[in-house]
Amino acid sequence: MTLDVREFFRATNPAQTLNVENPDERKLYIDFSEVRGSQIVEELRDNISFFSPDEPTVQLFTGHIGCGKSTELLRLAADLRQDDFHVVYFESSQDLEMGDIDVSDILLAIARRVSESLEDLEKIHLQSAKGLQGLLNGAAKLLQTEIDLSAEVGIPGVGRVNASTEGNFSAEVGVPGVGQVSADREGVSFVALGLGKITAKAKNSPELRSKLREYLEVRTTSVLDSINQELLEPAIYKLKQIGKQGLVVIIDNLDRVERKPKPWGRTQPAYLFVDRGEQLRQLNCHVIYTLPLSLLYSNDLNQLTNRFGCDPKVLPMVPVQRRDGSEHRDGLAMMRQMALVRAFPDLDEDGREQRVSELFETSELLDDLCRVSGGHVREFLRLLNDWIRKDRRLPLSRKGLEAVVRQKRDRMTLAITDDEWELLRQVRQHKKVTGDEGYDILIRSMFVYEYRDSEGSWFDVNPVLETALPLKEG
Description:
By secondary structure, the chain is an alpha/beta fold. It has 21 helices and 11 strands. The protein is about 50% helix and about 15% strand.
């Protein structure tokens, strides 16, 4: 059957994050760990399920934006669920204003997501959270916000049951096959509802965020104690009663925290993860935070690892060439499959390779796409997607690829200063970076990519820039 160009275009959408628990999306997943230099997902998983299943752990995970972290974290979540952990995965950018975040925002977001996830488990019901309720009521009064905390609790086979905050409402409803189900306003439903309403309002209003932080900042210890003692610890106890090993919280997208300075000059990432890291590690469950890659190349790295008691795990690019410039055949072969599986998900590798000519005028064109992407998975898909949009037909042409790469290169070069060109030439020659501010800019702007091999990490210039004149002139 001939592949429709529009189907291939939709299948290469760079904005799609694969969820391996979905069988259709699992077909599209390529495990690059063999060539990336380490088994990062397995290491994160083993630290929880093998080494410390009954003790709280905290781990840090980072990498270039778009290199595949979210896909790997979703795979980790699926693996941990198979190990009988209750996993709460969420994207912090959905709950938080990434340009203005404080520790209290992160803690409330975690509490909200955990409490909401427990509501979905019929056998988990936490009877009381008076400390959290007190904090929520105090926050609501401070914000002078009318928050209606009456809730309707959904009960399978029965419908909606109202749990009003007027008085000590508690409803016991008999459900066939389940027994008595309690909907108590002093439990987790109240907390989830209150946190949801307060955090939603705070996210959309800088003034409300400021007021909320003033209220919570002096109560951070109380907030942590309430979350631990009234939410996390009782939840873990109940989860183990129904056969779960424990609770894991995965907070994605914190690597996108904007590098804005606080009023006293400290950058937001350094403030959150270094200055306040001790508080972020005090949650009494397994927690995995994503964090900005720039912190690994700053003078704060030692302090960061001391705060959290662990080294950040880095997801590098997929190598398509080695540090000596020679071709990395295994990496190149896997990147080829990333394109082919989007077109032929039900074929094996050999079957896909036999149909390359249906997608590209020559097999070498696909290799060229892999090389110019630098092994950055989202950039690979973005270039391919733009290429399809440019040609509007299959097989894709060399002329179309050259046009897409040229357009990308010209956009990138507009933002590069003379000093940065000099730094790029040094990276190209020495394959390394230092903690210099200029290199930090190059990494954040994705002008430089990081790779791993048996000798450790090494760096190279984004291949899109290879034909830029200022780079050649050096």
